[in-house]
Amino acid sequence: MNQIIIHVDMDAFYASVEIRDNPALKGKPLIIGSLPQERGVVATCSYEARKFGVHSAMNIKDAYRLCPGGIYMHPNFEKYRSVSAQLHDIWNTYASASETIALDEAYLDVTETARTWDTACEFAQAIKRRTREELHLTCSVGIAYSKTAAKTASEEKKPDGYFEIPTKEAFVRLIIDRPVQVLYTVGKKTAEKLTRAGIRTVRNIHERPEEVIRLLGKQGQWIVQQALGEDNRRVTAYRPEDAKSISRELTFQKDVDDFDFLRDVLFLLALSVERRAARVGLYGEGVSLKITYADMKSITRSRLTRSTRSAAVIYQEAVSLLEQIRHQPVRLIGTGIYHLTGESGRQLTFDDFLPDARQAEQQQTAAELRRLGSRYGLNFADNLDKIFHGETLYKTVEYMRKHR
């Protein structure tokens, strides 16, 4: 049996959730991300805002220039994660395998559960209906014979769209005269390279496959395969351990040259990383530090360490890395763990057999929280859960920056 794959993609997910929860926002240009007076970018925006030219990843200053009358909000990631879990519970009902791409997007393999194309189409329509009726949100759904075609199909009628691409021939007919960017692996730079060679449409790729491969190597081979409608990739269930790293970073509203303050921020970021890692049951065998200076130059430093997800260890290693870099004003700071493993695959260390060592780490964490609370006049111990919500952490650090 040929594969039958559904691709589900929510429509302006963050913005749609906020509009659902506050109907007064309906029909207005809503921009989720940083606020206009802050540094940062657009995370997503409503379709009304897109009419002004606003789009995801746009600098927030540019968004405000295009849409000064928009409504600007910080994202609430805890809420979006909760809604995402509800969405995936609905979607996974119909699939034998589900590959999560993001909070609001997934590939579903319905080959075995549906068994026929007609039944798979009924599944796709049921997903749209249940998403709307149970969560009061809309999604765009594509159903196709491959992952590439399913993703293309879900984009075809956005928002609140539905589209079918049953065969390779149907896929090629659909895209043959479209720009090369219709192939999802062709980004801006790749498109520019192809365009300079006179390859502007999918039809041009069909006509000159050898040149595409010569220009782009292995990537070119994959692009040619996509253009021909060939994609045999399977839907692979996401596993947290497949992630390359777990990290947390923060951009300051004003550049910081006080490295003692940066150490305090690193501790809160290390705590956040510890919580994220514990939530998915992972450990890291390396700690990283990321710094973006005021001149926008970014550096990353890392070192291998014992298998850990302890905030105390992450903080200690990150501070050590911080002490090795040049001291000049900092715009962004972040830390994380990498070389991730689960409980069963991790390399045990001597400390794992010493309860006193683990207890010492917990005591170090508690002492550091007390020190920060005393320094900034904040009650970290009783409000720790709230602090790690994205917007609250940002506000907490900004308060600390102003009162240090």
Query: Total domains, how many?
Result: 3
CATH topology of the largest domain: Alpha-Beta Plaits
Return the average pLDDT rounded to an integer: 90
- Taking pLDDT < 50 over at least 5 consecutive residues as the criterion, the unreliable ranges are none
- The end-to-end distance, rounded to whole angstroms, is 65 Å
Enumerate how many helices there are, as a single number: 16
* Proper CATH architecture of the largest domain: 2-Layer Sandwich
Give the helix/strand layout:
Elements: E1 5-10, H1 13-21, E2 30-33, E3 42-45, H2 47-50, H3 60-66, E4 71-73, H4 77-92, E5 97-102, E6 105-109, H5 111-114, H6 117-135, E7 139-144, H7 147-156, E8 162-165, H8 168-175, H9 188-196, H10 202-207, H11 209-227, E9 245-256, H12 259-280, E10 282-293, E11 298-308, H13 311-322, E12 330-342, H14 355-376, H15 380-387, H16 390-402
Parallel strand pairs: 2-4, 7-8
Antiparallel strand pairs: 1-6, 1-7, 2-3, 5-6, 9-12, 10-11, 10-12
What's the quick description here?
This protein has helices spanning 13-21, 47-50, 60-66, 77-92, 111-114, 117-135, 147-156, 168-175, 188-196, 202-207, 209-227, 259-280, 311-322, 355-376, 380-387, 390-402; strands spanning 5-10, 30-33, 42-45, 71-73, 97-102, 105-109, 139-144, 162-165, 245-256, 282-293, 298-308, 330-342. The chain has 404 residues and is α+β, with helices and mostly antiparallel strands.
